[in-house]
Write a structure and sequence with these properties.
The protein contains six helices and 18 strands. By secondary structure, the chain is an alpha+beta fold. The strands form two sheets. Strands 1, 2, 3, 4, 5, 6, 7, 8 and 18 form a nine-stranded antiparallel β-sheet that branches. The structure holds pyridoxal-5'-phosphate (PLP).
Length: 347
């Protein structure tokens, strides 16, 4: 195991042994891209020799993923729901007219890079993990606007620190109706780099004020969409009934964490509802959070709506329902609880 200050690692890139790379070469015929993937290979070289006119640089043919590898309480190495990431990368690739790596290839490349970087999987007690960043880029040199015929899948590993090094805590969000992250029928539901660049104007403005940014739907700006890199969850308790609410929108990324939490919530007997959520409904929530691979759950204490001069105070400290869901998911990821849905691959 590497001598790394695991406890002080943040969500930053740390150099590891190797990355894995795999190229595709094809031809377009009658609107279909046909070709073959080479065998994946490991390399210590973290730089690409890329043509300046590559379609990823010129026209944004780029998609990526993010998933975690955990060293469990039992010492076993678990990769969480990588097949779901492979499937989402396939959807993103198809949306940008890129070649989609087959699941078996994704899995093979993932296992190769995890094995070669096993020394960088943080010890169990630290709460740190090995983050994997699969990346798919278009490499064909092109000046005419259109998709290329050559692609490359790369998986970059990096240990990352625990999201909550101290205490599980709340964050305040601010609504921005003046910048849209993605169009209603655009690429918001795909994990493509352009969505993130498009969100920076809003997220950086929010960070300067000490907040995170909550995006509303780009068509009406009346409904909650998502955060820049996380889905939104609200918890509504009425009498002895608990409802797990999450937005339905064509412009948000289908979060694998949210999907997992919805499954756990149903198991706990909560009603799970995915629907349009009006901004004013924040007033009816007892708990709220952002959810995603990096944080699992990031509870929200307040949401500020500057255009309407309103602040929705939700919960000063992380609430019991979301705290319990957070622990239930982490228990599966760290092998402390039965993996009853077969979410983890032990490697
Ligand atoms: C825009 C966006 N929404 C939601 C998520 C959460 O998705 P997941 O739970 O699959 O990490 C992410 C992170 O991947 C994201 O970038």
């Amino acid at each position: 195991m590497k001598q790394i200050e695991w406890n002080t690692l943040g969500f930053h890139y740390t150099e590891t042994n190797s990355i894995v790379r795999c190229a595709f070469h094809g031809e377009w015929k009658n609107g279909q891209l046909a070709g073959d993937w080479d065998e994946p290979y490991l390399t210590t070289d973290k730089y690409l020799h890329l043509h300046v006119s590559a379609t990823c640089l010129q026209y944004g043919q780029e998609a990526f993923e993010g998933l975690k590898v955990f060293r469990g309480a039992d010492g076993q190495i678990r990769v969480f729901r990588w097949q779901a990431n492979a499937a989402r990368l396939k959807r993103s690739a198809e949306a940008l007219k890129m070649a989609a790596p087959p699941e078996e290839l994704f899995g093979k490349a993932m296992r190769m890079v995890v094995a070669d970087n096993a020394d960088y999987i943080p010890p169990y007690e630290t709460g740190a993990t090995l983050y994997l960043r699969p990346l798919l880029i278009g490499t064909t040199p092109r000046l005419g606007v259109g998709p290329g015929r050559d692609y490359e899948l790369i998986i970059i590993p990096s240990p990352i620190g625990p999201y909550y090094p101290g205490k599980f805590h709340c964050t305040t969000f601010i609504i921005n109706r003046h910048v849209d992250r993605a169009a209603a029928l655009g690429t918001g539901q795909y994990k493509v780099g352009g969505n993130y660049a498009a969100s920076f104007r809003a997220t950086e403005a929010a960070h300067l004020q000490g907040y995170d940014c909550l995006f509303t739907d780009s068509k009406t700006h009346r409904y909650i969409d998502e955060c820049s890199a996380a889905n939104f969850i609200g918890i509504k308790v009425t009498g002895n009934k608990t409802e797990y609410l999450t937005p339905r929108s064509t412009a948000i990324l289908p979060s694998i964490t949210n999907d997992s939490l919805m499954t756990l919530a149903r198991d706990k007997g909560y009603r799970v509802t995915r629907r349009h959520i009006r901004i004013e409904e924040l007033a009816d929530l007892q708990e709220a959070a952002a959810c995603g691979t990096a944080c699992v759950i990031s509870p929200i204490d307040k949401v500020i709506d500057p255009d309407k001069g309103k602040t929705y105070c939700i919960s000063r400290t992380p609430g019991p329902i979301l705290t319990d869901l957070y622990h239930s998911l982490q228990d599966i990821q760290y092998g402390r609880a039965d993996d009853r849905y077969g979410w983890c691959e032990i490697i």
